[in-house]
Amino acid sequence: MTISPLLFIGLICLAGGGSLLPAKAIWLTIPSSGERCVYEMIQANVVVVGDYLCIDQDNVGLGPTIDIHVTSPHGKELYKKTNETHGQFAFTTSETGTYFACLSSHHDQSHYRVNGTAIVSLDWKMGIRTKDWDAGVELELRKSEERVNEISANIIYLRVREAFMREINDKTNKRVAQLSFMSLGLSVIVSLFQVWHLKRFFLKKKLI
After folding, report:
1. Same domain, 144 and 169
2. What number of other Cβ atoms are within 10 A of residue 143's Cβ?
3. Are the CB atoms for 36 and 102 separated by under 8 Å?
């Protein structure tokens, strides 16, 4: 399980009439043209599973079909399907960043009414929510175990990070100390040289 990322709430207009929404279990209305994108900020090494279902609330029979593609923060395509009514995508994140799932109506809707809109249920699950748990006490025990594992992993990460920062701090302090001693030594040498030079000057002038 991973710590649930913050959900960004907002609506941003895209070219072609698309929009962006934060990822969670939601219903989306997909227009006949353009696309809608769901996005989520996800940490690295997280299991992600998404289920989608396209329906028509007015017709029980044939409904619209959609195209869907999922991309990584750097635009790498992780999943792509066309002319689908339902499906599931799954992947493990390789980097921390914003992941996108974009849906659009399939260009050929000859089996469906013209200018119709598709209604899509999209459930984007991450970490512990992707597990297929049994009901009852075992569920809570497994969830607790996952939380403990997550806390343990975070503690290990913090310890490694602390050791790394301590090492950098020690090296910095050592270098500062070395520079201080070098500066002190140089100051002593310059002072001795000045005393010797002044003494020699006074001797030449027979002032002492």
Report:
1. yes
2. 14
3. yes
Residues 157 and 116 in one domain: no
- Which residue among 109, 132, 155 closes a domain? 132
Residues 31 and 50 in one domain: yes
Tens-binned pLDDT, residue by residue, of the chain (208 aa): 333 333 333 333 333 333 444 445 788 888 878 889 999 899 888 889 899 988 876 665 556 788 999 999 999 999 999 988 889 999 999 999 999 999 998 776 555 554 566 788 898 888 766 665 555 666 677 788 888 888 888 889 899 989 999 999 999 999 999 999 999 989 999 999 888 888 888 888 776 6
* Residue 122 and residue 142 in one domain: no
Domain count, the chain: 2
The reply to whether 2 falls in a domain is no
